[in-house]
Amino acid sequence: MNTAQAFIGVGANLGDRWGTIQRALGLLGQTPGIAQVACSPVFESDPVGIIDQPLFLNLVCGVETTLAPEQLLARLLEIEESLGRKRLLRWGPRLIDLDLLLFAGETRTGPELELPHPRMFERAFVTEPLRLLLQAPRFRTAAWTGVQERLATLPPGTGLRSWSPA
């Protein structure tokens, strides 16, 4: 079975943000067909869109998977739901947010799945963690060269602060 690399954006701004993120990553790592490879440092970020809400914790996780992109996306949505995510307001507060950002260098546009994620290069809370994660030798592959080149053209992210659990 072929293994593909994928990147997942992870964020939370309600409740025990870090605890919920840890639970989500644990569920992701327990999923058959997914091997969690590495996660970026964690950042605290200002909200985007609706700014009158709590600060977010964000990171990007790189995985290796034998799942198809649609299967991986379905699993991310299952994990969100199992942790109590309710999709009530676009860009609103959330217990957990798992976004499939990139999958094996694929480009797709469809009603359920768009790759790369359509707004990822506009969001410092994605680009900065992804930039750091792509420095790992495991991710220095031809599939990510174009992404690395695009990230290199972006200005440094603003509204981000390094964060670590107390």
State the gist of this model.
This protein is of the alpha+beta class and 166 residues long. It is built from 4 helices and 8 strands; from the N terminus they run βαβββαβββααβ. The chain has one domain: 7,8-Dihydro-6-hydroxymethylpterin-pyrophosphokinase HPPK (Alpha-Beta Plaits), CATH 3.30.70.
Explain this structure.
The structure is a single chain. This protein has 4 helices and 8 strands. Strands 1, 2, 3, 4, 5 and 8 form a 6-stranded antiparallel beta sheet that branches. A two-stranded antiparallel sheet has the order 6-7. Helix content is 28%, strand content 27%. By secondary structure, it is an alpha+beta fold. It has helices at 17-29, 69-82, 124-133, 145-153; strands spanning 4-12, 34-39, 42-45, 56-65, 97-103, 108-109, 114-115, 160-163. It has one domain (4-154): 7,8-Dihydro-6-hydroxymethylpterin-pyrophosphokinase HPPK (Alpha-Beta Plaits, 2-Layer Sandwich). The radius of gyration is 15 Å and the shape is globular.
Low-confidence stretches: none
Radius of gyration: 15 Å
- Overall mean pLDDT stands at 90
CATH topology, what is it called?
Alpha-Beta Plaits
SSE sequence, one letter per element = EHEEEHEEEHHE
CATH class: Alpha Beta
Q: Tell me how many strands there are.
A: 8
Name given to the CATH architecture: 2-Layer Sandwich
